[in-house]
């Protein structure tokens, strides 16, 4: 796992991806920080954090699109899959490398908080909670991106499908609202209600929002972590089944 | 040691490898020969655990590749058809990665330096792989397989796409490696296998067509000794004289060459050596020898016979059958043709 992690990190910085990703992420975060905090003259960073939530579905697939697609395309996966390592450690090596890149991006919020601390009282607890929320969100979504990447050898398709799937995960609570308000015959109402409730329970945003308010909920942490575990497991299964075809 | 038992692979409905079994002893160099698409790479991919077999078993030093893949794979160095090189890394960076990936325990610097020297890539060790020539990439691929000094090496067409000089270099390297490792080498180039391997397995359409040492293979397909001599002198006299040499089964004159010479195709009895007597005969009759050659079957001939034979018997039953033709049959056929030609000439 360590070898793959190090190689992946090296590959990020040997290709333009790391620089493009970090540039866009920092630019976006900087603009939001200026618009929602600096220009208003307040020490509240919640505007920035909720914008960073919406940046994830656009930017996380950039980090994950190449992880398995490129290996498959250039046949380098043959080296990995015939090496004496388990499929799990291959997947985790790639997963943690992408997560590390993502974390380097998210960590910018501490720089902003530090800047802010010269001008006013920063609620460090809230900043930390938001950072953890963004980190967990990334941990879940990156596993989705890596999974999508293992399904195709085309990086562009991996990006688009990853983006769509993560976007749906981001807005699942809004979709639940549509389902709830759908006009259906009365006897279907309980079913529709149950579906909407289920969709709300799966909402990534609601749990993220709780964090941003400073509510640390262990069940939310478990939700994100198990999402990551499930998708990483699915990626292993994809690699496994591909050998049998 | 590699044991392969009844290995079969289906891609969907397509049968790519059909019930192959063989054993490779320690220290043996095995050649895997077959036309493109015969199932060589598929078999090698199954041996190395890259893909799974549909049925059958592969044991690497007694370890089942599907039951304990990590342990089994630790015994194998694999050079796939396309070396799995990361284009954006330097040669040394890549070898270090492979070293870590294989969890190698040997002293890092000494081991990697030794491999670089062996594969002659020391001078490019700091360069980005993307910028290397094909020959160098192939050698880096070879180096990658050698990391960790695995007892078994599996090389899939190591010389494909290289220039003649590079081919010779890789071939010499393979020979050198064969002294320390158990080695399987695939190729569709026969001279390569001939130059390097002790034993040959011929695969055609997923089936094993032959499994034997090179010598036995040559003998089994053509157990008749033939030689060709080009002599001057009168045809009938020479034919008569050659027939009298003990050990000669039959002799036939070919068409006339320049300067009134003829090629005589001589078929000898098994183990007979008529070279000396032929020389004596020529001296006695005052003949000059322009050319003398033993008609040994090349691997090419063997290969063509075995693979063609399968083709004809299995698929094209309705078309005129070209089966394995023995020299006698060949001769008979030619004589009939000659007779026919003569008859035709007579009619005119």
- Return residue spans of chain A where pLDDT drops below 50 for at least 5 consecutive residues: none
From the N-terminal CA to the C-terminal CA of chain B, the straight-line distance is 69 Å
Low-confidence stretches of chain B: 310-325
Roughly how much helix do the residues of chain A carry, as a percent range? over 70%
Q: Count helical runs of chain B.
A: 12
Q: What is the 3D shape of chain B?
A: elongated
Approximately how much beta-strand content do the residues of chain A carry?
under 5%
Instruction: Tell me which CATH architecture of the largest domain in chain B applies here.
Output: 3-Layer(aba) Sandwich
**Helix segment tally of chain A:** 13
> What's the SSE pattern of chain A?
HHHHHHHHHHHHH
Query: How is the largest sheet of chain B built, in terms of strand order?
Result: 6-7-8-3-9-10
Order of helices and strands of chain B: EEEHEEHEHHHEHEHEEHEHEEHEHH
Total count of strands of chain B: 14
Q: Specify the CATH homologous superfamily of the largest domain in chain B.
A: P-loop containing nucleotide triphosphate hydrolases
Gross morphology of chain A is: globular
CATH topology of the largest domain in chain B: Rossmann fold
Radius of gyration of chain B, whole Å: 26 Å
The assigned structural class of chain A equals mainly alpha
- Give the percentage of residues in beta strands of chain B: 25-35%
Q: Work out the largest interface and the residue count of each chain.
A: A-B, 25 and 31 residues
| Helicity level of chain B | 25-40%
What does this structure look like?
The complex is a heterodimer of chains A (245) and B (348). With 245 residues, chain A is mainly alpha-helical. Chain A has one domain (2-170, 203-243). Chain A is 80% helix and 0% strand. Chain A has helices at residues 2-14, 17-38, 46-64, 69-73, 77-81, 87-106, 108-117, 124-151, 155-170, 172-181, 189-201, 204-212, 218-244. In chain A, helix 2 packs parallel to helix 7 (108-117) and helix 3 packs antiparallel against helix 6 (87-106). The radius of gyration of chain A is 20 Å and the shape is globular. The relative contact order of chain A is 0.13. By secondary structure, chain B is α/β, with parallel strands linked by helices. Chain B folds into 2 domains: 2-219, 3-Layer(aba) Sandwich (Rossmann fold); 223-294, Alpha-Beta Plaits (2-Layer Sandwich), CATH 3.30.70. Chain B is 39% helix and 26% strand. A 6-stranded mixed beta sheet of chain B has the order 6-7-8-3-9-10, with helices on both faces. A 4-stranded antiparallel beta sheet of chain B has the order 2-1-4-5. The longest helix of chain B has 21 residues, at 327-347. The model of chain B is unreliable at 310-325 (pLDDT under 50). Chains A and B meet through helix 1 and helix 5 of A and helix 2 and helix 3 of B.
């Amino acid at each position: 796992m360590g070898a793959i992690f190090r190689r992946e990190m090296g590959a990020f910085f040997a290709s333009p991806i790391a620089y493009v990703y970090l540039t866009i992420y920092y630019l976006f975060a900087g603009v939001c920080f200026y618009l929602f905090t600096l220009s208003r003259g307040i020490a509240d960073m919640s505007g920035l954090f909720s914008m960073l939530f919406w940046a994830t579905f656009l930017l996380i697939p950039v980090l994950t699109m190449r992880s398995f697609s490129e290996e498959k395309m250039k046949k380098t996966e043959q080296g990995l899959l015939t090496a004496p390592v388990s499929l799990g450690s291959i997947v985790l090596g790639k997963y943690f490398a992408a997560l590390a890149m993502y974390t380097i991006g998210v960590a910018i919020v501490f720089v902003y908080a530090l800047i802010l601390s010269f001008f006013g009282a920063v609620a460090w607890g809230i900043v930390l909670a938001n950072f953890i929320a963004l980190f967990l969100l990334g941990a879940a979504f990156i596993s989705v991106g890596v999974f999508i990447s293992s399904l195709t050898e085309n990086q562009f398709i991996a990006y688009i499908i990853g983006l769509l799937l993560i976007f749906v995960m981001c807005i699942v609570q809004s979709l639940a609202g549509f389902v709830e308000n759908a006009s259906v015959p009365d006897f279907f109402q309980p079913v529709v209600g149950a579906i909407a409730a289920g969709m709300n329970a799966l909402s990534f945003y609601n749990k993220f929002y709780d964090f941003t308010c400073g509510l640390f909920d262990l069940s939310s942490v478990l939700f994100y972590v198990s999402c990551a575990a499930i998708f990483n497991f699915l990626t292993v299964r994809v690699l496994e089944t591909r050998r049998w075809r | 040691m590699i044991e392969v038992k009844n290995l079969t692979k289906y891609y969907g409905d397509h049968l790519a490898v059909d019930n192959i079994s063989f054993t490779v002893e320690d220290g043996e160099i095995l050649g895997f020969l077959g036309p493109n698409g015969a199932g060589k790479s598929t078999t090698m991919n199954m041996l190395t655990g890259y893909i799974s077999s549909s049925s059958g078993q592969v044991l690497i030093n007694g370890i089942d590749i599907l039951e304990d893949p990590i342990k089994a794979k630790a015994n194998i160095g694999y050079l796939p058809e396309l070396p799995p090189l990361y284009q954006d890394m330097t040669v040394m960076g890549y070898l270090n990665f492979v070293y870590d990936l294989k969890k190698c325990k040997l002293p890092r610097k000494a081991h990697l330096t030794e491999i670089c020297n062996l594969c002659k890539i020391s001078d490019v060790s700091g360069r980005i792989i993307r910028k290397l020539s094909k020959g160098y990439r192939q050698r880096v691929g070879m180096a990658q397989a050698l990391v960790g000094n695995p007892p078994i090496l599996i090389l899939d067409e190591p010389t494909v796409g290289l220039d003649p000089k590079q081919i010779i270099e890789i071939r010499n390297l393979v020979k050198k490696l064969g002294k320390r490792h158990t080695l399987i080498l695939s190729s569709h180039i026969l001279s390569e296998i001939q130059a390097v391997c002790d034993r040959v397995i011929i695969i055609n359409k997923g089936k094993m067509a032959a499994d034997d040492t090179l010598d036995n293979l040559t003998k089994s397909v053509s157990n008749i000794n033939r030689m060709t001599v080009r002599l001057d002198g009168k045809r009938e006299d020479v034919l008569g004289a050659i027939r009298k040499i003990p050990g000669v089964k039959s002799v036939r004159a070919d068409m006339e060459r320049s300067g009134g010479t003829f090629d005589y195709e001589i078929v000898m009895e098994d183990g007979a050596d008529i070279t000396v007597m032929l020389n004596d005969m020529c001296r006695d009759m005052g003949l000059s020898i322009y050319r003398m050659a033993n008609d040994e079957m090349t691997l090419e001939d063997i290969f063509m016979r075995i693979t063609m034979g399968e083709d004809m018997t299995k698929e094209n039953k309705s078309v005129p059958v070209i089966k394995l033709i023995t020299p006698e049959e060949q001769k008979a056929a030619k004589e009939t043709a000659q007779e026919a030609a003569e008859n035709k000439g007579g009619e005119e």
